[in-house]
Write a structure and sequence with these properties.
By secondary structure, the chain is of the alpha+beta class. The protein has 9 helices and 8 strands. The chain folds into 2 domains: 146 residues, Jelly Rolls; 48 residues. It is 46% helix and 21% strand.
């Protein structure tokens, strides 16, 4: 039986809960006026996406920002010669999937992929709806800054790992900086995130565990 036949349909009560979770998350960053909350509750759209689903690929437009209630997703490039992935960001539950400039300016994507690593529960809002939110509520601009700051902090941690010259030491630093990802990434994704080969990763794991 396929996963699509086993998941619970999103009924009205579940949709309300998912949207409220999204708004509650946003409220942890900024105080939101009640009219803005009401508009968001009308505009947000809940849906499932399954592992392997591409939210974005070349020639597509990035039309939706998404809050991830459950799941994990990766942002990556493909090496032109080897075809291998280079993962440049990973989102987990409780984060917003957003490439802000591409989203706001409605730029056609030329090189990035956003793919689900795990089955996910998502709540999305379109760029057209966000135009209205930005126009009517100054709090939305402050909220966007907070969302981008959160992403930037993770980006800096990732860059710290990639700056380690001896690649065998990258896994140990990964465990310290990204505990939420430990034991959730397969070897292929972990290699693409750490910029190491699989033999290097396996040896680093063995040494880290005291082998």
């Amino acid at each position: 039986m396929s996963r699509r036949n086993t998941i619970k349909p999103i009924d009205e009560a579940m949709a309300y809960l998912w949207k409220k979770d999204t708004v509650d998350y946003l409220k942890t960053m900024q105080q939101l006026p009640e009219p803005m909350v009401a508009d968001l509750m009308k505009m947000l759209r809940p849906h499932y996406k399954f592992s392997g689903h591409l939210l974005l690929e070349p020639d597509m437009y990035h039309t939706d920002a998404l809050y991830m209630r459950v799941g994990m997703a990766k942002l990556y490039l493909l090496d032109a010669k080897s075809g291998k992935q280079q993962i440049i960001h990973i989102w987990v539950a409780g984060e917003i999937i957003l490439l802000h400039r591409m989203f706001i300016k409605r730029l056609q994507n030329t090189k990035f992929y956003i793919e689900m690593i795990e089955d996910a529960e998502l709540v999305s809002i379109s760029n057209d709806c966000m135009d209205r939110i930005y126009k009517d509520y100054p709090a939305a601009d402050k909220l966007t800054v907070d969302i981008l700051d959160e992403k930037h902090e993770k980006r800096l941690k990732h860059q710290e790992i990639l700056s380690i010259e001896y690649k065998g030491d990258r896994y140990g630093r990964f465990v310290v900086l990204f505990p939420e990802l430990v034991n959730r990434l397969g070897n292929e994704d972990m290699c693409a995130f750490l910029g190491v080969s699989e033999p290097t990763l396996l040896r680093a794991k063995y040494e880290y565990l005291g082998g």
